[in-house]
Amino acid sequence: MLSSVAFGQHGFKINITPLTKNFYICTSYGLPDGVTKFPANGLFAVTNEGIVLVDTPWGEDQTKQLIDTLQRRFNQKIVLCISTHFHEDRTGGLDILNKLGTETYGSRLTYKLAKGRGEQVPAMTFTNDTTFTVDSLDVQTFYPGPGHTADNIVVWFPKEKILFGGCFIKSLDTKDIGNVLDAYVDQWPASLNRLAAKFKDAKFVIPGHQGWKGGLKQIPYTLKIVTQK
Fold it and tell me: How do residues 139-157 score in pLDDT, each as one tens digit?
């Protein structure tokens, strides 16, 4: 496991875990209830033309840690970052990346919601499902419908069959639905069904928080969690 050497606010230290060839999970931490340290997963891929990042770490200090670690370990800069929804655990380092010239993207709805909530915003937006290509890496966004938030998207790497589900997908480690302040719980099941139908061949499914060993099982598990009484 690779990890940065610097500590940020609250003493949080990011962890970087290899996933598969050239793909890594970056785990950062926050205090969603003000007390309990809680992990948040992002993902990055290393290419010859730079690093593709899905979701910034949770805040600017941990984003700086990631930038320093990537430069030291891979001698690479982040050239593209896609935020999967507007919450701080997905957007909290966008200002830093924007200053460094990274192409930061989110959906138009993510931009609107982030700006309205006072969160950091991507420099560029897209309206429909979009494919980005960096070097030979294809990166596809997909909007399954409302769930954890109105704007939650997932990111698909078709050649590698890696699905980054973000907070739309629950880890098998999760015991309850979690933060529903911005959720559309009644629409989440239908959105999950759309996702399941589209990504039947995913080899890896990465949730926004906690472990990701459950693969495709995490999709019906999420349905169970969001429909339990």
Answer: 999 999 999 999 999 999 9
